[in-house]
Write a structure and sequence with these properties.
Elements (H helix, E strand, L loop, with lengths): L55 E4 L5 E2 L2 E2 L2 E4 L8 E4 L2 E9 H6 L1 E6 L5 E6 L10 E4 L5 E2 L2 E5 L2 E8 L6 H10 L22 H18 L10
Parallel strand pairs: 6-12
Antiparallel strand pairs: 1-4, 2-3, 5-6, 7-8, 9-12, 10-11
């Protein structure tokens, strides 16, 4: 049986796979012959108006170096939530609370925009604002990327705040100004049913207890009679 030769590859202990060996006396004191040094730099970034959440900004040649090549530095835009405004693409959504008087008789309210301008929303006296109604203010939304003069819209959603209760005199005053009810106060049924307000969580708990009690009784189901 002759001699057997085996060939394999491994990383060189001298050059560590770089293919180049530098004598100790010739090594740079800053990089120790690695040709790369770690340092912190300040990069100036231009964030364009209107960029959306998750947008990427690429800085060519500002990343780490591998050999003689410098890679790019990629920045990802993380959009913070605002206390009043919600972004919907190029549009902005603003929620405004109104009293019943403002909803029925008109209103005027002022708010501060994102650029610190004071804007006024006005609805003439006599115009009714319905709960959930949305008013569109053209050109007061977010800037459109690539179009410096283009802006989205501002969508204003109105929420009407109803009182918890009213006195008898308040009900009488309202009845004088508003159309009468569509329902009749006469009792048609022999057993009238009066509706009262109750928390939904309490109702669910009572239903669950009732179902558990029925299961504990173990009443057999009624089957079909054989013919």
């Amino acid at each position: 049986m002759g001699m057997m030769y085996q060939q394999f590859q491994t990383t060189c202990d001298m050059c560590h796979g770089t293919g180049e060996c530098i004598a100790e006396k010739d090594k740079c004191p800053d990089c120790s012959g690695n040709k790369v040094v770690e340092k912190q730099t300040t990069a100036e970034v231009n964030v364009e108006k209107g960029l959306s959440n998750g947008s990427k900004i690429r800085l060519a040649g500002q990343g780490d170096m591998r050999g003689n090549k410098a890679f790019d530095l990629v920045l990802v835009v993380n959009e913070e939530k605002h206390a009043r405004f919600t972004r919907q693409g190029p549009n902005l959504l603003l929620s405004v609370d109104l009293t019943i008087e403002e909803a029925l008789c008109g209103f005027q309210t002022q708010f501060e925009h994102l650029d610190h301008r004071q804007l006024v929303l006005r609805r003439p006296r006599g115009e009714v604002t319905r709960p959930g109604e949305i008013m569109c203010v053209r050109g007061e939304g977010m800037p459109v990327v690539g179009s410096p003069s283009a802006f989205g819209d501002l969508l204003v959603a109105f929420h009407v705040q109803f009182p918890v209760s009213l006195s008898v005199h308040q009900c009488e005053d309202i009845a004088k100004s508003l159309p009468g009810p569509n329902t009749s106060h006469s009792t048609v049924s022999e057993y009238p049913c009066y509706v009262s307000k109750q928390e939904l969580s309490v109702v669910k708990e009572e239903i669950q207890k009732s179902e558990e009690a029925e299961e504990e009784d173990g009443a057999p189901n009624v089957g079909c009679a054989a013919q």
